[in-house]
Amino acid sequence: MRKELLENVRNSHPLIHNITNYVTVNDCANILLACGGSPIMADDVEEAEEITSICGGLNINIGTLNQRTIPAMRKAGIRANALGHPVVLDPVGAGASRLRTDTAMDLLEHVRFSVIRGNISEIRTLASGTGSTRGVDADIADAVMEETLSEAAAFAKEFSRKTGAVLAVTGAIDIVADEKTAFCIFNGHPMMSGITGTGCQLSAMTAAYVTANRECTLEAAAAAVCAMGICGEKAWQRMTEEDGNASYRNYIIDAVCRLTGRELEQKARYKIL
Amino acid sequence: MRKELLENVRNSHPLIHNITNYVTVNDCANILLACGGSPIMADDVEEAEEITSICGGLNINIGTLNQRTIPAMRKAGIRANALGHPVVLDPVGAGASRLRTDTAMDLLEHVRFSVIRGNISEIRTLASGTGSTRGVDADIADAVMEETLSEAAAFAKEFSRKTGAVLAVTGAIDIVADEKTAFCIFNGHPMMSGITGTGCQLSAMTAAYVTANRECTLEAAAAAVCAMGICGEKAWQRMTEEDGNASYRNYIIDAVCRLTGRELEQKARYKIL
Amino acid sequence: MRKELLENVRNSHPLIHNITNYVTVNDCANILLACGGSPIMADDVEEAEEITSICGGLNINIGTLNQRTIPAMRKAGIRANALGHPVVLDPVGAGASRLRTDTAMDLLEHVRFSVIRGNISEIRTLASGTGSTRGVDADIADAVMEETLSEAAAFAKEFSRKTGAVLAVTGAIDIVADEKTAFCIFNGHPMMSGITGTGCQLSAMTAAYVTANRECTLEAAAAAVCAMGICGEKAWQRMTEEDGNASYRNYIIDAVCRLTGRELEQKARYKIL
């Protein structure tokens, strides 16, 4: 993974507008600062378009969506499209309720996304327009593993072709694909699913990466996914016998804060399908 | 305290629907993961019932309640009752405003709770239908101490008889009671009141414990309270001279993450009245 | 800086009503507890006045403001004024959207503030009634530096004369001024801008300081700013090579928790203009 992808974030400090859930919003803000970006959170329909206009990129996360914030998501997305800003969608819990599925589908219809990042259950829901997700975690049955990798990569490429977005399907193995190329990424640690919001954080960071690397969205999204995975690995190495998921959360953000382009190049583990 | 009460949470990974305040919601999500459960937060009336349906238990916390979320609390509670799911109520700040008191009373009228967990001031407010709480902390005058223990236990039993819920009245000494039996729990550390949200976290964890131990709600709630107290003690032992309440918060969640059934059995300190 | 200013907070435990954004609200609650205060968060218009009434002070922060919370801010502010409670305004992102600028201007018109705390871009927006802020961070062009210090102090004094509020303009150098006197404060560390919410946290803590020191608002606000800066310095000294902004956030709150009046006296670095 080219170190410039990370360094461009640190050098350009992309300002990212986040319309996101209140569960993990603080972690999203801190990881954006950690990676070199700058966060602003604003979800009222009265200011959503204006805030998007002063930013470089937009991150829409539908966790804890509500009747008040859904119109803000749509308006901000349309404005960001008009301005040519990258837009990331995190369809948290799509499939878990009709409201989430419908909101995600409605956004897909009205907004062109640069990247869609979710777990395999959420992405399958978007692809089929229906689904049954176990809360905000991926169904075991759907998990991407070595044996199902090429099938999953084909699925991501196909859905990328339909949506025009780069697909980032994250799990034990992550797939980041446009219609032609899929990065299969092996970085990360199982403990990352033991804290809330690693997915949300990754979506926010992905928005910073693609905003700072406008000419290579696929590669930038893949770099963000590798960076998160590498930091999950580094954070794990710091864990003592008394540490649990609260410290691990802090260590991951700390690692993002310390990560260098050189480390990204050296530690990224992926293959291209 | 039987180690199975904890192990059942780790083995069954109960999915808990939380309608909770935005102050401590991240800690609630992380402690649910730490104890072995799985969190989903959703507070819009359009999806509250549906989200509850895919979960095993429901945790309603009225901190930062608002006109938008109150109907979601009620609908989710009624649906959870219809499905036979355990429901926990945390009446944060009941007595501090009419809106909070009225909302808590309304919920008590329309929803059958498995457990009600609050400080003594909040619980007294519910019992009397009125009250004056100093913010979200218990009044000193109300504090449960060794001398007032049997009186407080009798009060909790009586209110349990009226509501049909297990009462978890937490403070320096915690009381967990149904109409016949009261666990008086001596675990915990005074520093726990020096961080925000230990009560909210305990309510969330209690929902996981009672969901994973359907046949013994009283004992499961008592186990959750013991577990939280033991983790407050273990976290305190980790504190260095530079650590304050931010690190203490992390250490408690870390300790929940590491707690074993064996430790719960060995370190729980309680008597039964 | 007199040690009594800190000790009065620890001795009187001021209860502070916060209407604040959901990004940094947990940190605001924990820093209030760390400094010796007690937080309550409530933003529904139905309870805002009542909650303010049981508190000692009010902290209004317009980050993630929305149509539902804006009326609560105004009502709570007016009630606090009627009761003679100190009120702090944090105009987060004023200048970044019309909604934020207008809301801040409307609040200034209807509520008398004891302290207004913001970065220089936000305060300039309030002073001119218009502005262009880069998100929630100060514009580089506006930064207060040694060369522009006396000019900035004169600006703060003048705006204090107009509003009747103590102005706390924070940045590399902080200025805390009433119409006659400006404290120029040199404590702090550049890394403080690398975490989200140090400004929000400072506003919350300032509310506690001025509530506990009713007869000397200027000095109390200056003490809060010094305390935050000193804790930023102490937290920095704790940083290891693996620590990043997540740990730094915790270390700052920890340092506030441990700060003594004596340290405040010894480590405060300021001059009076």
SS element count, helices of chain A = 11
> So, the CATH homologous superfamily of chain A?
Ribokinase
Roughly what percent helix of chain A? 40-55%
Q: Could you tell me the number of beta strands of chain A?
A: 9
CATH architecture level-2 label of chain A: 3-Layer(aba) Sandwich
Share of residues in strands of chain A: 5-15%
Form type of chain A: globular
What is the number of domains of chain A? Answer: 1
Q: Helix- and strand-based class of chain A?
A: alpha/beta
Major sheet of chain A: order of its strands? 2-1-3-4-5-6-7-8-9
Radius of gyration of chain A: 17 Å
Mean pLDDT score of chain A: 95
- Largest interface, counted with CB-CB under 8 A? A-B, 36 and 33 residues
How far apart the termini of chain A lie comes to 15 Å
Biggest sheet architecture of chain A: 9 strands, mixed
Q: Which regions of chain A have little confidence, pLDDT < 50, spanning 5+ residues?
A: none
The multimeric state of the shown protein is homotrimer
Q: Which fold name is given in CATH as the topology of chain A? A: UDP-N-acetylmuramoyl-L-alanine:D-glutamate ligase
Pfam families (chains A, B, C): HK
Binding site for ATP (chains A, B, C): 117, 170
EC number (chains A, B, C): 2.7.1.50
Catalytic activity (chains A, B, C): 5-(2-hydroxyethyl)-4-methylthiazole + ATP = 4-methyl-5-(2-phosphooxyethyl)-thiazole + ADP + H(+)
